[in-house]
Amino acid sequence: MAEAIKPHAVCIAYPHQSHIKATMNLAKLLHHRGFFITFVNTDFNHKRLLRSKGPSFLECLPDFRSETIPHGLSPSDSDSSQDASALCESITHNFLAPFRNLLVKLNENPSTENPPVTCIVADGLMSFTFAAAEEFGIPVAAVFTLAASGVMGFYKFCSLFENGLAPLRGTSINSRLNY
After folding, report:
1. Which of 2, 107, 164, 169 is the most buried (most CB within 10 A)?
2. Percentage of residues in the chain with pLDDT exceeding 90?
3. Model confidence band, residue 116 (pLDDT cutoffs 50, 70, 90)
4. DSSP secondary structure letters along 25-68
């Protein structure tokens, strides 16, 4: 009997430490549930990860591999990925083509050792993944790595406007909010 091909999730995080950690944890959970995982990181952050965790930190996980795409910023040894506006601009203009090329590469010669991509799990800030997913006919799930305070902000957003507490005007920024 032929071995069943595992579902293959391509997981990609926004290139910032907290987003990478959260997406990596989700990828490990999916792997534990039987998924073949390709974790996509920028080349810059992948090198940082290898320096901190060691070159063999993922070798103990079969069917879990990492791939990189360029971050599109000028090469340097400085912490250039922390310039949020430059990084956002680069994501918008430079990430789709390398990600598309990676999907083509991952879908070449499918086998049990290299299953075809069946879904994309993307950080919600990596909106270019939706265009790639549509082009390849692959479902995409957006994951938002928000803190509890961010979730509460979204949850209470409408009531803040309804109660006249937003948008903030003048010096009311120091006023106490009552929920």
Report:
1. 107
2. 45
3. very high
4. HHHHHHHHTT-EEEEEEEHHHHHHHHHHH-TTTTTTSTTEEEEE
- What the block records as the tokens of 53 is 């965790």
Residues serving a catalytic function are 19, 123
The CA distances from residue 160 to 45, 148, 167, in Å, are 38, 17, 8
Please give the domain boundaries of the chain with CATH numbers for all domains: 8-145 (3.40.50.2000), 147-179 (no CATH)
Cα–Cα distance for residue pair 65/57, rounded to 1 Å = 11
Query: pLDDT value at position 52?
Result: 78
Tokens of 73: 């910023």
The CA distance from 80 to 44, in Å, is 9
Identify the residue whose tokens are 């995080």.
Answer: 13
Longest Cα separation, the chain: 72
Measured distance CA(11)–CA(6) in Å, rounded: 15
